[in-house]
Design a protein that fits this description.
The protein has strands at residues 29-35, 42-46, 52-57, 61-66, 72-78, 85-88, 94-98, 101-105, 111-118, 122-130, 136-143, 151-157, 163-169, 176-182, 188-196, 199-207, 213-220, 226-234, 240-250, 253-263, 269-276, 280-288, 294-301, 303-304, 312-313, 317-323, 329-335, 341-347, 353-359, 370-376, 388-390, 394-397, 401-404, 409-411, 415-418, 423-424, 428-432, 442-444. By secondary structure, it is an all-beta fold. The strands form eight sheets. It has a six-stranded antiparallel beta sheet with strand order 28-29-30-1-37-38, with no helix packed on it. The two termini are 30 Å apart.
Length: 446
């Protein structure tokens, strides 16, 4: 496993507290699966039977159903998609959103229907879910002219993937859409990056059930010009939590910090924290926990000193960060090595944590990236197996400026068609990383 480089950051003493009233957590485990493209991202969701559904980009769009112990029950590769996100539907099947395609699967991964969506220029879908009425919402990017400026594209779909309405949201440059979620009132909330007034802002907007703007806010820190909002989730009190980042400059060198925003129902900031590992910090996912706190997943990467011999500076590797309801540190840990990723995290029904990403599979730098899943207890531990190392990144209050933007939704004219696709059942070695040194990998055939 690649060595971790640590930067000692001088800061006031922070008390790290164990999670209060921990429930009896079920199995904990640490497994890898087939080879994937780490740039394609990963998604995970706990299913109604206590297991998990996971997706990643392999040679095609890969979806796997696991039991509660992380053992595969079935898995498929679906051609024609890309960078997909999977979630369970009300009939215990699944919806997969990625590329320009939606796939509806039954509970065993068989395709019930598949749809492709086409807009003039180019487009791709990044995020989506089933809505409470049984239809679907999907968010993507649209380039009206190939090579031109991108816009956020939101499309509302029927139970069978037919388009009910579609809207585009343009800024003053490249709009970078990342995530969408249905809200309690049947509307939708979107996280994105928005060029506005000569800088890139972290942008969150709320729509009504027809895609019309309810409110829209851009968030930025004075003196910094590049911000992005990667994921937004509505909280149990009707507000929101946002995983974002800020590009910063230290002594003329570029780096970044993660940025966690806690918003009220109107998008105004309740609290805000930056999370700094001394180099680059890439947040990818945030979720509310049952105690009202939050769990954040992401990755540290070192920057390189501007002084010869240009050593790496800063923390390195995938991280999990646990905050309480007020944004105070509960714990922080690093998992895996410098070239590993954690893309998605969620609290499980037993009070533990599921996190997924990619692991280099024993290679120090490249190139065999394996799909990776960790089931941890509420304190980020794997019982009987030390999988983490301490992190000393700093958590600091920030002073963001909130700007009300005036982006107008515009109707678009995408078309949809049914499509056939190739479905295969790959064979892959499922590796228990905790016993990798003493056990031979089990080859899974499904």
């Amino acid at each position: 496993m690649t060595s971790l480089f640590f930067l000692v950051l001088f800061s006031p003493l922070v008390t790290v507290r164990p999670v209060a009233a921990e429930r009896s957590v079920g199995p904990t485990w640490d497994r890898t699966f087939l080879s994937i493209d780490p740039g394609g991202g990963s998604s995970v969701e706990q299913t109604s039977d206590g297991g998990f559904i996971m997706s990643a980009q392999s040679s095609a769009e890969w979806v796997m159903k696991m039991n509660a112990r992380g053992m595969p029950e079935w898995q498929r590769e679906y051609g024609g998609g890309g960078n997909g996100q999977v979630s369970q539907t009300s009939d215990r099947g699944y919806i997969v959103v990625g590329g320009n395609q939606l796939l509806k699967l039954d509970h065993m991964g068989n395709v019930e229907w598949s749809r492709k969506y086409y807009l003039t220029g180019g487009m791709g879908l990044f995020s989506g879910q089933q809505t409470t009425d049984g239809g679907y919402i999907a968010l993507g990017e649209w380039l009206p002219v190939v090579g031109g400026l991108s816009q956020a594209w939101l499309v509302r779909l029927s139970r069978t993937g037919a388009i009910e309405w579609q809207q585009a949201y343009a800024g003053q440059g490249f709009v970078e859409p990342y995530s969408v979620q249905e809200t309690f009132d049947g509307g939708f909330v979107v996280a994105a990056g928005l060029p506005w007034n000569n800088s890139q802002k972290a942008w969150v907007f709320k729509t009504d059930p027809m895609g019309r703007m309810v409110w829209q806010k851009a968030y930025s820190v004075p003196g910094e010009i590049d911000h992005h909002a990667y994921q937004v989730r509505q909280t149990s009190d009707g507000g929101y939590v946002v995983a974002a980042d800020i590009i910063v400059f230290r002594n003329g060198a570029q780096s970044s910090v993660a940025w966690i925003l806690r918003l009220g129902p109107d998008g105004n900031i309740l609290w805000q924290k930056s999370y700094d590992g001394g180099g680059f910090v890439q947040p990818s996912s945030v979720a509310e926990t049952s105690d009202g706190g939050f769990i954040v997943a992401g990755r540290f990467m070192p920057r390189y000193s501007s002084v010869f011999p240009f050593p790496p500076v800063g923390l390195s590797g995938p991280f999990l960060l646990r905050l309480d309801s007020a944004g105070n540190l509960v714990w922080q840990k690093i998992y895996g090595g410098a070239n590993d990723f954690l893309f998605r995290v969620q609290e499980t029904s037993d009070g533990g944590i599921i996190a997924v990403g990619s692991n280099v599979g024993g290679f120090h730098n490249c190139c065999n990236n394996l799909a990776w899943a960790l089931k941890l207890d509420s304190n980020g531990n794997l019982r009987g197996c030390p999988v983490d190392v301490p992190s000393n990144a700093t958590l600091t209050d920030t002073n963001a400026i909130v700007t009300t933007t005036t982006v107008t939704a515009v109707n678009t004219n995408a078309i949809v068609s049914s499509t056939d696709l190739t479905v295969t059942t790959p064979t892959f070695p499922s590796q228990d990383l905790c016993s990798a040194k003493t056990k031979t990998p089990v080859r899974v055939l499904r």
